[in-house]
Amino acid sequence: MIGRRRPTHRIHLPARVQPVHRDDWYEDPIEDELAAEGVKAKVVGGGTLLDGHERVKAVDIEVRCTDPRFVELVADVLDDSWAPRGSYVEDLRTGERTPFGRCAVVVARLHGHVRAELAYDHVPGNETLMAAFGEMRGPMNASGVGVIQSWQLQEESTDVVLHGPDADALVAFVESEPWFAGLTDEVELVRVTP
Fold first, then answer.
1. Angstrom distance (rounded) from CA 138 to CA 131
2. What burial letters (b/e) apply to 166-191, b meaning 16+ CB within 10 Å?
3. Can you tell me the mean pLDDT for 98-116?
4. Which domains does the chain have, with CATH numbers?
5. Is there a contact between 119 and 151 (Cβ–Cβ < 8 Å)?
6. Quick one: DSSP state of residue 68?
7. CB-CB contact of 25 with 151 (8 Å)
8. Is 89 helix (H, G, I), strand (E, B) or coil?
9. Among 25, 45, 62, 121, whose Cα sits 20 to 30 Å from the Cα of 1?
10. Distance from first CA to last CA of the chain, Å, rounded?
11. Whole-prediction pTM value?
């Protein structure tokens, strides 16, 4: 294609994040933090893999970078951005895959229909879900248990995606308080990675 650069690397993350959160957590840090290291890397594409229930299963990011330090540096940058276990960087020129990722992923599935206006960021009326996240963030940061990386509204449920060093700690944290009481009485915890 004229004017389009082909990617040199594909980054695969079994992260269940919406495209807008993929940008915030992964794509922006790739360009910004590598530039700070003197490495010119350009995100040239990306994609989202859905499972049979139309939930995000994984994301890919395509990058153009010819610096030999890229693979090592991008793995470090993304590990600092809570990359899940099972992630890898693939050199599209050689087919070589380099694994990385230190975090477990747990989904807190809120059963029952959560009204759209309660779940979308930057939409009037989203106070209930955003308030729950606000209440969770302080204790999560203080304890080092993890972060809320994304959420996905489904017809019958809303998935809140949590990343942290230990799946058991994430589960214990969610079970420690009725964080989602304003939204649902039933929360199912799904361990996506160990």
1. 12
2. bbebbbebbeeeebbeebbeebeeee
3. 83
4. 9-100 (3.30.70), 104-191 (3.30.70.100)
5. yes
6. T
7. no
8. strand
9. 25
10. 41
11. 0.86
